[in-house]
Design a protein that fits this description.
By secondary structure, the protein is mainly α. Helix content is about 85%, strand content about 0%. It has 19 helices and no strands. Helix 1 packs across helix 18, helix 8 runs antiparallel to helix 13 and helix 13 packs parallel to helix 15. The protein is globular.
Length: about 550
């Protein structure tokens, strides 16, 4: 257990720090986009268009491909050595390139025919054209994600975690210095932005190539020895895509519903219900949803994705070696960390949602009404952060033991439920109903996945998990009280300094209150994430006392 604690603690901090750097640049990027374009039709079209290749990146690149490919790399490294793993890696790289290029070409032709043969509104035309421009980004980022999976299997987490920084730095540089200097028209500006995103995708791939070569994985493909591995990856990816995609697909569905049920210039109401208002949503809802998703994804990326990235190679290694006890121990450790970090993250986001939106986005064309709408989205999405983090851990445990069908089945039912809740809640709640339905579905999906996983691998260490949960709930209650007290003293203001204090003071007060409460209650998981140096003595002793 101590070795796992050292591994998780050390690498979680490394990946988390890299993710923080990326997300800070990402927030600056989104802030600049909001100020430049506002919450309107042009920004709505871009956010929906970017969601499609970004979804493919998350699913094929960071999700399904990595999940299907990483155990193969681990197996090759353990049984046949680095040279064999390199041959398999590059053979799959070439096969993936051919496959992705073919899929993107088909999509480009389909969209070209759609825009040529069908009389579409100006906003729909812009959406299709931007999508056509951004689709090649899928090829570049998926290839980069495959190389990142190899580095993770080798125990290198820093370089893959820094890849998103490249995108955000290039994007920010274009928004700050290039685009305003050359283009005044918003449509031309959004086109230039899309081109810069595509260029950044190429730089992300180029960033990893020297690193993978330095690790002894220079190009050498062997199609004969890699054929079985290619078939295995292709066979296993589909259920993994479906299983891992549900939360992401649900957020994309949210965006499409927001785009379709809001008024557009010169367009008839889309799917309006008989006898109901023609548009239950406002223009700009898709933008507010996207920005709300970006904010809740900050703690999800810093902690949830980082934890899944660090734990998955451990899960795969335990499964390969038949170490069921160690798999359950590490999974229980992951759940305890999700409870101790995910619950306060959810509560914190809900409490500071509106100060967050005001500070980061209420500039330029992005007015106070748009900021309030974005704050509502952050609040509703934030309520499910703990569930999103839990799913990242639980699903990867299923995949590590070779079960890809169970997460897929759960996910399909979850997606159906989300569609039903989306089309139900938008009428009484507006855009907030879209975000809330996704969070509710994620919570239900997480709990069902946990129950079925235990049936698959055996009983988890519930005594230790329950102890952590009880202490966390008490600490979160104290944190919420302190944060609410600080928020009661804040006042709306146009001054940047006051806006910053309205966010920083409640956030700092809540964080100090939570950590102090955790220390007094003997809740060790937050300190494991923040400061653990590798002894593992305190946590292990606590584990034993808790029955782990």
């Amino acid at each position: 257990m101590n070795d796992s604690i050292r591994h998780v603690s050390r690498n979680l901090r490394v990946v988390g720090l890299c993710t923080i750097i990326s997300r800070v640049f990402g927030l600056l990027r989104d802030q600049t986009m909001g100020a430049l374009f506002g919450a309107g039709p042009i920004m709505d079209s871009f956010t929906v268009a970017f969601r499609l290749p970004n979804l493919a990146r998350v699913l094929l690149g960071e999700g399904a491909l990595t999940t299907a490919f990483l155990p193969i790399v681990v197996e090759e490294l353990n049984h046949r050595g680095r040279d064999s793993a390199a041959r398999v890696t590059w053979a799959i790289f070439v096969a993936l390139t051919i496959t992705l290029c073919s899929l993107v070409l088909v999509a480009e032709v389909a969209l070209a025919l759609l825009t040529t043969l069908v009389d579409l509104s100006a906003q729909t035309q812009l959406l299709c054209h931007l999508t056509m421009l951004l689709l090649p980004y899928v090829i570049l980022i998926c290839l980069a994600a495959q190389l990142g999976a190899v580095l993770n299997a080798l125990g290198h987490f820093v370089w893959p975690a820094l890849v998103p920084v490249v995108l955000n730095v290039v994007w920010l540089g274009a928004l700050w210095w290039v685009i305003p200097a050359w283009w005044d028209d918003p449509v031309n500006q959004i086109w230039a932005t899309s081109i810069c995103v595509l260029m950044a995708g190429g730089l992300q791939l180029a960033f990893l190539l020297p690193v993978i070569w330095k690790c002894g994985f220079g190009y050498r493909a062997d199609w004969r020895t890699a054929a079985d591995s290619i078939k295995r990856v292709a066979r296993e990816m589909l259920p993994v895509v479906i299983g891992l995609s549900i939360t992401q697909l649900n957020t994309v569905l949210d965006s499409f519903v927001a785009w379709g049920f809001a008024p557009t210039e010169g367009a008839a109401p889309f799917m309006a219900l008989p006898g109901s208002p023609p548009f239950p949503l406002h223009s700009g809802t898709a933008t507010a949803l996207y920005l709300g998703q970006r904010l809740y994804q900050f703690p999800l990326g810093v902690f949830g994705v980082a934890l899944g990235t660090v734990l998955f190679p451990l899960f795969a290694r335990h499964a390969q070696r038949g170490e069921s006890d160690r798999l359950r121990e590490d999974l229980s450790l992951g759940i305890r960390l999700v409870v101790a970090i995910g619950l306060p993250a959810s509560a914190g986001l809900m409490l500071i949602a509106h100060p967050l939106a005001t500070l980061f986005f209420q500039y330029g064309k992005f007015d106070a009404a748009a900021a309030r709408m974005t704050g509502d989205m952050i609040l509703c999405y934030g309520s499910g952060v703990w569930a999103y983090c839990g799913l990242l851990i639980l699903q990867r445990a299923f995949y590590a033991v070779g079960d890809r069908l169970t997460p897929m089945s759960i996910g399909l039912w979850a997606m159906l439920l989300n569609i039903i809740l989306n089309l139900t809640l938008i009428w009484p709640m507006g855009g907030r109903g879209l975000a809330l339905s996704t969070s509710l579905v994620a919570a239900i999906q997480c709990l069902i996945t946990c129950v079925l996983l235990q049936r698959r691998i055996g009983r988890l260490e519930w005594r230790g998990i329950a102890t952590t949960a009880a202490k966390t709930v008490i600490a979160v209650a104290v944190m919420s009280g302190v944060c609410q007290s600080c928020l009661a003293w804040t006042e709306p203001s146009e001054r940047l300094l006051v806006r910053g204090l309205n966010l920083v003071v409640p956030l700092a007060g809540g964080a100090v209150a939570y950590l102090a409460s955790a220390w007094l209650l003997g809740l060790r998981e937050p300190w494991l994430v923040l400061f653990h140096r590798g002894t593992g003595a305190d946590v292990s002793a606590d584990d034993q006392q808790a029955g782990t």
